[in-house]
Structure prediction request, 466 residues.
Amino acid sequence: MRVICFVLVLGAVACGSVGERPPDGRCATAVECTDPAAPFCVDSECSASCSVAADCVEADRGVCAADGACVGCEVASDCGSEAPICDDSARACRGCAADAECGGGVCIEAEGACVADADVAFVADLGSDTGACTRATPCATLTFAITQAGTARRVIHVLGGTLNTGSVTLGGDYVLDGEDTTIGSAGATTLTIRAPANITVEGFRLVAPTAGTTPAISVSGFGAVGILHDLQITGTGLAVTVTNSAEVTLARSHIGSLATTSTVQCTNAKLRVDQCVLEQTIVNDGNTQCEATVTRNRFESSRDGSVQLTGGQLVMENNLVIHRDGFNDSILAVNLRPGSTIRFNTIVNTTALPSDGAALSCDNAIEVTSNIFAYNSGHPITGLGCATRFSVFDDQSTTAAGTGNQLTGIDQIFVNRGTGDYHLSASSVARAGAEPGQNMVKIDFDGQPRPSPSDTTADSGAFEAP
Prediction:
C-alpha cells in the first residue's frame, strides 16, 4: 500500500492540486488533501485509498480498483481500441501482442491493434483464388487477396507457416500480417513497395537474394511509407533497400546471421532501425545520402562495419555493438548534416588480444558523447577532427581526446564481459558518467528510464544502471 500511495501522490502533483485541510480535519474534495499518504477525500475524510473513479485524476489511471488503488484497468472493457488489452500484472492498458489476445480476430503487432475477421482478407498456401478470402475459405495469393479486399479490408493475413509467392508489388494502404510465415526465395525480390503506399509488413521470414543489387524487400519513391515489423531475413546480400525519398521503419526484426553477410541500405531516403538484432549486417553500406535513426539495436559481427553513413544525417542512440574480431572497424560517420549525433552506445571488442581496429571513424560534423568504447584498441577513434565527450575508454587506448572522458580497465566496466553481460558493474566509472544536459534520451537499451533516479546524471553507454 505504501508503494500505491506513492504513485497516487505523483498523480495528484501532476494535476497541480494545492490546498489546505480545513481546521476540523474534514474535506470536501481531494484538493484539500495535501498529505502524500492520504491524497483522496473519501466520506469527508482524507484517505490513502480511492473510493470511486472520480478520486483518480491521473489520465492513464482513471479506474479505482477493489484494493483502493488508482489503476489503468481491471478488465479489458476499461480499455479503448488504441490499447485494448488490460495487462493483469501492470493493471494498465496496452496494445495486443498476439492473435490469441484478440478474441478470434487478428492482432496487428506493429500497431498493437485488434482487427475483427470481417475486416481481414485471408490467404493460405492451400487456399483458392475464388470467393471473398475469408478465414474459412482463404485465397491462395497475396495479389488476389488484395484485389478482393479492395478499400473495405485493410489487413491481409496469411495463415500457416509457408506461402509460395513470387515477386509481389504493393501499393495503397495495407497491412500484410503473417504467422511467422516463410515467403519468397533466394534470387529475387519478394516484396516491392512503390509510391503511393502506406504498407505494414509483419510476421514473415524471408531469404535475401544471394548476389547482386537485388534486395529481399525494396521500398522506393516519394510517398512510399513502409513499416517492417517482426521480420527475419537471412541469406547473403541486400536485405532491405530504401530509395528515392521513401520512408521506412524497420523494427523488432532479425536481419542476417553470423554465418552470412547482409546489408540494410538507404539512398536519398529516411530509415529508422529500432530494437532489431543485426548479425553480420551493415546499415547503409555505401556513400549515400540518408536520414538514418538507429536506436536500441544489437549489432554483432566479425566483419567490418555496423553503421556506415557518408552524407545525410545520423542519430545513433542506445545501441549495443559487439565485434568478435577487434581488428576490424565498426562505425563510419562523415560529412553529415547538423543534428547528427552518436550517444549512449556501447561498442565492444570481445577478443582477448589488443588490436588496431577502430570503433568509430568520424569528422567534426557529428556530436559524439556519453558512449562506452571498450574496444581493446590503441586507437578506437579515428578520422579528421573526430572527438568524443564524457565517454569511457578501456585502458588500451592511447588517447581519450575530448572533455569529460575516462580511461579504465576493460573488464572493470561491465558486469561480465566474458559472458556477454554488458550492463554496468557496481563500481563502473560509466555510472553517472554521461554528459550533463543529455536528458532528452529518456530510456536505455532495455527500455528502462534514463537517468535513474530521474534527478541524477545519466550513465554512459547503452545501459542505465538502476
Q: What stands out?
A: The longest helix spans residues 2-14. The chain is about 5% helix and 35% strand. The CA atoms of residues 387 and 401 lie 6 Å apart. The mean pLDDT is 90.
